[in-house]
Write a structure and sequence with these properties.
The chain is built from 34 helices and 46 strands. The two termini are 80 Å apart.
Length: 951
Amino acid sequence: MSRKIARKPGYGSLLLRNRDSLTSESQPSSRDSCLRIFFQDELPHLPSKWSVLKISVEIISENKSYRGNIGNLRQLHSKGTVGGLLNNSQFSLQEKQIVRYLSFNADYEDSSLLLNAEKASDFFHCLVGFKNVFCNSTNLSFFPEPCDLAVGEISGGTIKKIVPLISTKLSYFNLENSSFVIGQNGVWVGIFGNYFWIPGSRDVKWIRDFARYNAKFANDEEFNAEIEKFKVSGLEIVSGYKIPKNKKETQPKPILLANFAGGRELRLTLLFRYADAVFPADFKNAGLCAGSIIERNTFFESNFERRLLFAGFKKDMKTPGLYSSSNSELSGLFMRKFSSEWSADVEIYVKGATNLIEEAKRNLPAALHTRLVSEDNEGFNIECEIRSGKEKIPIDKILKACEDGSAFIETEDKALVEIPDELKKFVLATKDMLRNVNGSTLRISKAQSLAWDSFSEDFSQNRIAKITEFRNGVKLHPPHLVISNEFSGSLREYQNEGVAWMLSRFENGLNCMLADEMGLGKTVQTISLLLEMKTKYKDENRPNLIVCPSSLTENWQMEIAKFAPTLKCVRLHGMERERIWNETSNPDVIISSYSTFKRDIIRHSEKKYRLLVLDEAQHIKNPETGNARSCKKINAAHKLVLTGTPIENAPIEIWSIVDFLHPGILGTHNSFKKQHSGSENNDEALKRLAVKISPLILRRRKMDVLPQLPPKTEQMLYCEMDDSQAEAYEKIRLSFRKKFEELSSGGIKAGTKFELLTLLLRLRQFCCHPSLLPDEFQSASLPSAKTELLKELILEAGDSGQKTLVFSQFPSLLKIIAAWLDSRHVSYEYLDGSTSDRMERVRRFNSEKECGVFLLSIKAGGFGLNLNSAERVIIYDPWWNPAVEQQAADRAHRIGQTKPVVIQKLLVKNSIEEKILSMQERKKRYFDNLMEEAPSVFKNLSLQEIKALFD
C-alpha cells in the first residue's frame, strides 16, 4: 500500500515553510486577549485512567496577565466577564470552548486545574490547532486528522528489523520513546511534543504493547512470517526509506526578520535555521525536513530569545516568534549596534526599510563643539554646544539621555541621533558644569577648568588651548622655596615642597587642602606659609584667620610663637575676646575655635581676610552644621583646609570641605549625594571625583617621605574571659539578641538604630570592664580579663623604661586604670574632653622621665598632640572607625620619634570585639584615587550585619 504525504500549511514545526510565509503568519492578531495553557508536569504520559494532568491557565489581556483559576474561568464562561476587567468577547471561539470545557470538567487545587486521563484526552481535542500550549519551555501541537498504526521493515545487511510506526498525513513516525494519553474512544500518541489521535478501533493494551515491540531477524523466513502476521491484523507495511531518520542539531543559526510597522514600531520575527530547514521560534522539540526529523536545540533557542528580551524587546504572547518595541532608543540600538555586533552568528534581514532606519544610518552621531569666548582672573567663558551635523541638541535633553543610560536621542524633528560612548562619558563627568550653560555659553571657574580639560582629553579636537595651558601650568612642580629668615626653624624637603605647592595653588587662583598623614607637620608648613604670604602681601592690611578645635587653639598660639615670633598673633577665647578684639590692632594671625567662631560670625563676616585656615577640617564635613555654614560666610582671598582624615566614613563627606574651598565645583549637595552615595563601591565614580579634586589636594604618607622614621609595629593581643565573666557575657548577649529581634521586626528606623547601637555599646563596655555597665546589670563585682592584661603590659613597659599611651573611648574605664595606678604609686597623666590644660599635661608627660603612662580619651586625645616620647601605644577597645585608631597611634609615631613604636590592640576572644575587627576588614574600602582611610563600619550597617554582631 502506498501513501501520498500531504504538504499543506498548518502543521506547526513538522512542516518546512519558506521565510515569506512564516513572516506573514507571524503578524500579530488584532485581538487584545488570549489564553496560554501550561502543563505543569513533564510531557504528558498518562498510563492509566487514574493518572492526573495538572494544568495552569494564564489569561493575557491588554498586555496584562491574569491567573486563570477555576473561579475566574467559571465567571468568564457563565457571566462573560471577570470583575469587569475581562470579557469573553475578547477571546476566540476556540478559547471560549477551552474555558467552557475546563469550567465544567476540571477539578482544582489552589490555582491549578486537574484533569484525569480520560478528561485530559477529551481536552486535547479542544486544543487541536491551538498554538499556546506549553510544557516546560516546549510548545505542544495537537493534530486533528485520525491516524493509524503501521509496521516498518528495515534491512541492515543480514539483519532485518521490524519497528512500530504511526501513520499520519505528514509522514510515518517511529513510536520509540512515544507517550500515550488514553481516552474513552481512542489514544493520543505524543512524539517530540506533537500529539496525534488514534481512534478506538484497536484495543488500548494491544496498542501499548505494539509500541514497545522491537524485533531483529537474521532469518528471512522468520522475518517474512512476522510481517505476514501484521498484514493479517490490517497494519500497513512501510519500507524503511519512507521512515524519517532522527537528526540532532547542536547549533542552529538564528534568523531575524526586521520590519517597521507604522514607521516607528520595530518588529522582529525570530526563526532558526537547522541545516537546510528553517523553523519559527515556536519552541517545539522537533521539525520535519526532507525525510528527516530534526531534534531542535530548545536550550539554545531559549537562550537566544532571552538575548532579545534582555535587550528590551517585548514578546508577543499571541504570536510565537514575534518580538517588538516602540522605543526609538532600542530601534536605534538595533539598527546601529546590535545588527553589527550580532552579525557574526545571526542572519539579519530588514524588510521595507523606512525613514526611521534611513535616519538612524544617515544622522551623524552627536558631537561636542567648544570655543573660548573670554577669560578673566576667576575663570573662563566657553561657547559650548552639542550638535548632530548642523542640528543643535539641547544640553538638558542630552544630560537626561546620558543619565538614563540612553545610546540614542530623538531630536525635535524626530531624528534619531546616536550618543557616542566617549561623549556620554564626558557628559556624565561634567554634568554639574553643563547644567550652568546659559544658551550656548558656559561659565567655569579655574578650579573647574582643570577637571574640564582632563575629561575632554578624549575630544582632542575640541580642547581649548588656553585651558590646557592653564592646567599644564598648575601641574608644574613648584620651585624650591628660600625660607624666610623670620622662620625660627628648618623645614624638611617634603615640607618645603608642601609650602611651595600651597603658594602655587594660591597664585593660580586655587584654594587647597593639605591632607598629609598625621605626624608630618601640617602645622609647621602652614606657619611657614603665613610668613611667606606676609612677605608677598606686605602692603595689604589683611589678617589671616585660623579656625580649629578648642583644644588646639593654645597649641597653635605656642607653635606660631616658636617658629614665627615676628607674626603678631592673637587667640580669641572666653569672655576676654571682646577686649582682645578691641585692643589688638592689625594682627597677622587670629586664632579661634569652631565654637567661638560661630558665636562671633557676624564680626568675622565684616572683615576681609587674606587666608582662612580650617584645621581638622572634618569638623565641617556635614554641610548642615553651624560650623560649615559659618565658615562659608567669610570673605577671604585664599582658603586652606588641614586634615589628616578628610574622609572618615564615605566619599560623600568630602563634598562640604571641597565646596568650602570652591563653591559649586562638585555641584549641589543633593546632586552629589545622588551621584556618590555608595560610590565607595563604584570605581568609575571615584575616578571621576578624583579628577575633580586631586589638583586641590596634597597628601603624603610617612612611609613615602620619612623613610628614616623608626618602624611601627602593630600587635593584636587577645585575652580570654574567666568562667564568671564569660557566663555573664553570654547571658547579656542572649537577652540583647532577643531585644534585637523585637526592635528589628519592623526594619531599622532612626530611633531603632539608636537603641540597637546602645545594646552594642553595652556589650563593648562589658568587654572593657563589667563595672562600666549600669547598676541594673549587677556586674560591678565581676573581674575584667582585659584590665588584667593591661596592667601586665603597663608594668612590663615600666620595667623596660618605656613610656606608654593608653587610649579608650570610655573615660570611666580610664578612671578605673587611674585609680589602680594611684594604688601602685605610678606617675601618670590623664586627658579627656573635660581637661582644660591639655598642653601642660603633654609637656609634663614628654619632659618628666618618671611620668611613664598617659591615659587618653580617644576622641579628645586622638589628634593635635605630639607625644613622641612614648614608645608604646595601647588601643584598649576597638573603635568602629579604624582611621580614628590610626590617628591615636600617630600621636607617638611622628616627627621627632627616634625609637621604634609598638601599637598594641587589646581584644577579648569570643566576644563582639572580634566581630568588630572582622567587620572592619570586610568593610574597608581603599580610596586609592581619593584617600586611604577606611570607612567607619557602623556608618551604614545593614540589618543582617547588626544581627551578626549579636550572634
